[in-house]
From TrEMBL:
Keywords: Membrane, Transmembrane, Transmembrane helix. This is DMSO/TMAO reductase YedYZ molybdopterin-dependent catalytic subunit. It comes from Saccharothrix tamanrassetensis. Signal peptide: none annotated. One of its GO terms (biological process) is sulfur compound metabolic process. PANTHER family: SULFITE OXIDASE, MITOCHONDRIAL, SULFITE REDUCTASE.
Length: 496
């Protein structure tokens, strides 16, 4: 058998396995697709520093990079297995079976896949073995020629059909239709209008409100969970007086409030982009918890997403009257975008997202920190994670060239205390106060601006924020792990 024929048989066998797995998963539960289940499990087992690196380096494309990386690795293994099987189909058969077993293990590990889900990797393993051995037999015949070519075409065509079919069936839940049908979520208490002068966007800061399509996105979901509003139920249970099962219409029928909130990710490095602001519309989380009646001793609100991701939030924080924690249904005048948690998510001002902002939330359990560990806590991140006071320089950009008077602008945040002042210093000189943008509320970011007359040549500018509690951002650089980065943002540029 020629080398390329052997390699091609390896690839076609594996492609058939993945495609049939995807097709069966379309019926049994999309997250059971072996490729996705293995990918999601890989994400869960990736060491935290590597995950952090992926988020930092690839941003929102981290998952695409993982999927492409997996495809390359699997294709490589398939080629090797094909080549090893030139004389005897055993190595390829074993590979297909092993892929099936790995798939079964991954599916069993997924919290969001039902029992039936194992059918997908089992079907994948069987399809891989059968297709591989069939093509191998065709190609091993003395006068293989056109018959094996036809076999290759059939296998490739059927795989494409199965894969596309699985994708089609798996995404048949019409979540966009459900989202459109929600219509307007009109708040009974709208947020105050954003005042003029709330940002310095003309000078290079972000706009005050981040459009939904630009809002940063961080989550562990390889394929975005698809939950229709009409199927969604939020269970509130654990250490409560009354268990609640809230449906979407129960919540949207209440007096909705709108709050302008800046969200921040703990993975954000000094100077990083994982911070955005939106008008969130929803139901006060505190009201719902009071309705359930939180029992004494419950110090953790343990929230679970439909995809199995979990967060642990301090109960005392979400119960603070002026904290403004929300079960959010809407964002910037629309129902939540699917990637940002449709139908519902939590938003807690002043806490990093990984301990508070559960998207696609379906379960709220009142419990104790001592009794239950959430997703990232299990992986070495902090238990309590209030957002750290931070400032960032947005313009000029590092290493850029500037002509004439230099306008330095940036953003600062210190939810929920609020930004009191931002200072900058040039080349290690004295700190100078900047002008702040018009304040919106203490749980949102604030922009700052200063004009500097600098001599020609290279300069380093640093910024530091002070919040309303009197705390000033410190110079010492600390990594994002375990509970948020600190340090001054510093940029170097040249005046010409
Ligand atoms: N279901 C789920 N919710 C999640 C996460 C996740 O991985 N899965 N990530 C959290 C983290 S770390 C952050 S910073 C915020 C980000 O929310 P966004 O993607 O809407 O900006 O969501 C939080 N909610
Ligand atoms: Mo995050």
């Amino acid at each position: 058998m020629k080398r390329w024929t052997a390699a091609l048989i390896g690839i076609l066998g594996v492609a058939a396995a993945l495609a049939v797995g995807h097709l069966v998963a379309g019926l049994a539960g999309p997250a059971a697709s072996p490729f996705l289940a293995v990918g999601n499990t890989a994400i869960d087992f990736t060491p935290t520093p590597l995950k952090d690196f992926a988020v930092r380096t690839f941003g929102t494309y981290d998952k695409l990079v993982l999927l492409i990386g997996m495809a390359v690795v699997i294709a490589g293994v398939a080629v090797v297995a094909g080549l090893l099987s030139r004389d005897n189909p055993l190595p390829g058969t074993v590979l297909a079976a092993v892929l099936g077993v790995v798939g079964v293990a991954a599916v069993l590990y997924r919290p969001d896949v039902g029992r039936l889900g194992v059918l997908a990797p089992i079907a994948a393993g069987i399809a891989g073995v059968v297709v591989f051995r069939w093509l191998h037999r065709l190609a091993s015949r003395p006068e293989a020629g056109s018959r094996s070519r036809r076999g290759f075409l059939i296998a490739a065509g059927a795989s494409v059909l199965a894969g596309v079919g699985g994708q089609f069936i798996g995404t048949r839940t019409d979540v966009e239709g459900s989202r459109r049908a929600v219509g307007d979520l009109t708040p009974a208490k709208p947020a105050p209008a954003i005042p003029d002068g709330a940002d310095f966007a003309a000078d290079g800061t972000p706009g005050f409100i981040t459009p939904n399509r630009d809002f940063y996105r961080v989550d562990t979901a390889l394929s975005v969970p698809r939950v229709r509003a009409e199927d969604w139920v939020l269970r509130v249970h654990g250490m409560v007086d009354r268990e609640l099962n809230l449906r979407y219409d129960d919540l949207r029928g209440r007096d909705l409030v709108e709050r302008t909130i800046t969200m921040t990710c703990v993975s954000n490095e000094v100077g990083g982009p994982y911070v955005s602001t939106a008008n969130f519309v929803g139901v006060p989380l505190r009201d719902v918890l009071r309705e359930a009646g939180v029992r004494p001793g419950a110090d953790q609100l343990f929230s679970t997403s439909v995809d199995g991701w979990t967060a642990g939030t301090p109960v005392d924080v979400v119960m603070e009257e002026d904290r403004g924690a929300l079960i959010a249904l809407g964002m910037n005048g629309e129902p939540l975008p699917v990637e940002h948690g449709f139908p519902a998510r939590l938003v807690v001002p002043g806490l990093y997202g990984f301990v508070s902002a559960t998207k696609w939330v379906v379960d709220l359990e009142l419990t104790r920190f001592g009794d239950k560990q959430s997703y990232w806590l299990d992986r070495g991140w902090g238990e309590r994670a209030p957002i750290k006071t931070m400032s960032r320089i947005d313009s000029p950009k590092g290493l850029s060239k500037v002509w004439g008077r230099t306008r330095v602008v940036g953003v600062a945040w210190a939810q929920p205390s609020g930004v009191a002042k931002v200072e900058v210093r040039v080349d290690g000189g004295p700190w100078q106060a900047t002008r702040l943008s018009t304040a919106v509320n203490d749980s949102t970011w604030r922009m700052w601006r200063i004009e500097l007359d600098l001599p020609f040549g290279g300069h380093t500018v640093e910024s530091r924020a002070t919040d309303n509690s009197g705390y000033t951002q410190q110079q010492a650089r600390v990594d994002p792990i375990p509970d948020g980065a600190t340090g001054w943002h510093s940029i170097f540029f040249t005046v010409e």
